[in-house]
Design brief:
Strand content: 5-15%
Radius of gyration: 29 Å
Structural class: alpha+beta
Largest sheet: 6 strands, mixed
Number of strands: 8
Strand order of the largest sheet: 2-3-1-6-7-8
Number of helices: 23
């Protein structure tokens, strides 16, 4: 999590009983010696009845920090809200707000997190305390990097480096810069900034931060197809990663080890490392690392001809892929919503300011003679026109944002959430009048191979061209959406199962026979299609989706590039 790296130190047991001294000692140790920090908090707990109100709120903040570090985010958030609402110290409120920003991000409450980030950004010039300012900058940098705003993340990390408080070093600011540079693809394994960061964090005795930089370097080796160097580095830092027991590092190290083994052709070792990573996850976990682990397991089992195991891992991979893409979309959407709310507030403020100007002008003009009335009317019309223009721009911006929130950014068709909402609405209407509909699931075959061979630019071209081909065979009343990655969904309105099979097969043939080119490079692609009909599956969207996905997976197992649909007796038929 985003609270800095922790380093075990040996400290003599303090005999101080002054609560203020104990609070100072605890705060100085919270990122250096967690076990000693917890011991001091327990000692302060016995002194709570004797604490001043200011000391109690400071103790509550440190206790909230401990709970967040240990994963009890719900309790930590309750404590932080109380500190923010009731503490008199602006410094303490700023620190609590910075920690709350991290809690909200970890719990995927992105809209609240970005709203808080906007408020902290606006208040940043008024935060004079070096320690509080440092914490706010650190959490802003992490949150913005998490949402894909790497330029802003770098800006705040460099501001941290320019305002390091007493007792801190350049380790954390440099670590955040490394993370943002890697995520924005501005870093190579030869960049001297990596070794500089390792040296600074090693000197500062911050092993978790040091390991973070080493793991970035290992990822770069893998990106640059240097798996042997990656393996040597992972072997070297393995003892430190295991000693510090930082979950994210243990997970990412195992997945990177699996990737390195796979690139070196050691499939059995790759499988062991990937399974070890999967074993670290909790039920319901969604992460990019788990997605990569399941993808590797699927590829290994498929390569070794274990079809059942390969299919099982592929299904896990699809869940992780969809979950990860949905989470990325949710972050981006929440960031845009927060920016939109800030724009609305700014426009409302400007509107009120203009209205106040009108009132002042009216009062002034009331005292003037008749000869100034023409000027008064002219000024009033100009100001009113300005307000109307602002309101028009605001409305246009809101309408545009609403449309974008319903559409997939790459292909322009409905996104996953809006497709599901609209499909459910249409099915309810059809059920009332006993109409027919077919739900089609389309998955482009071997799409990852296109990205790996020709690059993501060609992959984007293939996705957009596949969407254009599908649209040529659809009617205005049909719903068409991107469900995630290379998977698409179509709801054919007023369409029998036989008609649906014909349309699905025409789409499949068109995709398989249309040349796809960019910059002189050509690629052939095919599609597997699953179909479910209200004739046999009813009007419940969840069941239709399940039946269509089941048919799609059957099409994949049967050799791809085919259409398979359900039948009235519950069996499947190939078109």
């Amino acid at each position: 999590m985003a609270m800095g790296s922790l380093v075990p130190h040996c400290h003599a047991t303090t005999s101080a009983s002054d609560p203020a001294i104990l609070l100072d000692q605890a705060e100085s140790l919270q990122r250096k010696d967690h076990s000693r920090f917890v011991q001091i908090l327990a000692q302060i707990h016995n002194e709570v009845p004797h604490l001043t109100p200011e000391e109690r709120w400071r103790f509550s903040y440190l206790d909230a920090w401990k709970n967040a570090f240990e994963g009890n985010y719900s309790k930590s958030e309750t404590q932080l809200h109380k500190v923010i609402d009731h503490a008199d110290s602006a410094i303490l409120v700023a620190k609590a707000s910075a920690l709350l920003l991290t809690n909200l991000g970890i719990n995927r409450r992105y809209e609240e997190a970005f709203t808080l980030a906007n408020r902290l950004t606006a208040e940043l010039p008024q935060i004079r305390d070096p320690g509080a300012r440092y914490l706010v900058l650190m959490n802003l940098s992490q949150m913005l990097d998490f949402s894909g705003q790497t330029d802003l993340a770098l800006k705040y990390a460099r501001m941290m480096e320019d305002s390091i408080p007493p007792g801190e070093t350049r380790c954390l600011p440099l670590n955040l810069q490394i993370a943002a540079l890697y995520n924005s693809k501005q870093l190579t394994s030869a960049d001297p900034k990596l070794q500089q960061t390792v040296d600074v964090c090693t000197a500062a005795q911050r092993p978790v931060a040091t390991n973070s930089t080493w793991l970035v370097l290992s990822s770069l080796y893998l990106d640059e197809n240097q798996p042997r160097k990656a393996m040597e580095l992972l072997d070297r830092i393995g003892p430190s990663v295991r000693t510090n027991q930082y979950h994210d590092h243990m997970l990412s190290a195992q997945v990177e080890r699996a990737q390195a083994h796979a690139k070196l052709g050691n499939d059995n070792e790759a499988r062991k490392a990937a399974l070890s990573a999967v074993a670290m996850s909790r039920p319901g976990d969604i992460s990019e690392w788990l997605m990569v682990a399941y993808q590797l397991l699927y590829q290994i089992e498929k390569k070794q001809g274990h079809s059942a195991a390969a299919l099982a891992y592929y299904e896990h991979y699809v869940v992780q892929d969809k979950g990860y893409l949905n989470d990325v979309s949710a972050r981006a959407l929440a960031y845009q919503v927060a920016q939109q709310h800030m724009l609305v507030q700014r426009l409302e403020t400007e509107k009120l300011s203009k209205q106040n100007n009108i009132l002042r002008l009216q009062q002034a003009l009331d005292t003037k003679a008749v000869e100034t009335s023409r000027l008064y009317i002219t000024l009033l019309l100009v100001i009113l026109a300005s307000i109307v223009l602002w309101l028009f721009r605001l409305k246009r911006s809101q309408l545009r944002f609403m449309r974008l929130s319903h559409r997939d950014g790459l292909t322009g068709i409905l996104n996953h959430q809006h497709f599901i909402t609209e499909a459910g609405r249409v099915l309810r209407l059809l059920e009332k009048k006993l109409g027919h509909a077919c739900l089609i699931s389309i998955d482009l075959d071997h799409f990852k191979r296109v990205n790996d061979t020709y690059g993501h630019a060609m992959g984007d071209v293939v996705l957009k061209l596949a969407v254009a081909i599908c649209q040529q065979h659809l009617r205005p009343s049909d719903l068409f959406g991107r469900l995630g990655g290379e998977e698409f969904g179509i709801l054919l309105h007023d369409c029998s199962r036989k008609q649906g099979l014909d349309i699905a097969n025409r789409i499949r043939i068109a995709i398989g026979t249309t040349p796809m080119e960019q910059d002189g490079s050509g690629v052939s692609i095919s599609a597997s299609v699953g179909l479910a009909s209200t004739d046999t599956s009813g009007y419940e969207l969840q069941r239709l989706c399940k039946e269509a996905d089941s048919a799609l997976y059957r099409a994949k197992r049967a050799g791809r590039n085919r259409v398979i649909a359900d039948t009235e007796d519950g069996n499947l038929v190939e078109a």
